[in-house]
Design brief:
The chain is α/β, with parallel strands linked by helices. It folds into two domains: 86 residues, ATPase, nucleotide binding domain (Nucleotidyltransferase, domain 5); 156 residues, ATPase, nucleotide binding domain (Nucleotidyltransferase, domain 5), CATH 3.30.420.40. Helices cover 34% and strands 25% of the residues. It has a six-stranded mixed sheet with strand order 6-9-8-7-10-11, with helices on both faces. It has a five-stranded mixed sheet with strand order 3-2-1-4-5, with helices on both faces. α1 packs parallel to α2, α3 crosses α7 and α4 packs across α5.
Amino acid sequence: MSDLVTLDLGNSRLKLRRWRVRSGGAPELAGAATFPAGPELVAQAVAELERAAEPAVLALSSVAAPAVEDALVAALDLRFGARFVARPSAPIELAVRFPERVGRDRVFAALGAWSRLGASALVVDAGTCVTVDALAAAASAPRFLGGAIAPGPALLAAALASGGARLTAVEPRPGVPALGRDTEEALRSGIVVGLRGAVRELITEIGREAGLETAPLVWTGGALPLLCEPALFPERRNHVEPELVHLGLLAALGHPAPAVP
């Protein structure tokens, strides 16, 4: 038995997952912790890792600011040495103009979708940003075809509050009506209902352009409840996977996706 740790460092938080691996079996989720971005993030992550048995391997996906990523990489490299894989290689073809510029979260989310389905899919990740990406099956390795990046609900709310002199900051909520009857309701409608419409259009058009009009949809991200209630595409196969980036990291380390509980 050996333990693995996967780390997903985004713009607003670090998600740490512990996995237990038994010989011949798929990893099992054994622990989880989340830390908000801030000056204590690195110390909190290292302290959390030292609370349990030392992992055999640690792997990181990061889209954070370079200074934040570099600080975390330096601390983990110092503490865990060769057991820490700062930038794992992903067995996926990046069929885009500038492969080196594709966010690692998008790469590992696509790889996680492949490890779960083994088939073409459209991958929707709703967080600080909302990404919709096309993943195509191929003979040698899955192909990441590209996609779209849109502002997430928190970014939209902040932009409205800062860009309008008489607009207030609101907290986006799932299930809001389209017909807002005061300014706050109207703002929430524009953010939530508008974003849901944008995602619906992106899925439709990206699917059409990529030849994946009937491909299953794989959903992940902390803002997912704002997009999936009600379901955008009830006629298609929908898979919700909260740990999608972590599944991609596991796949990069050579491990199959854990069984669905």
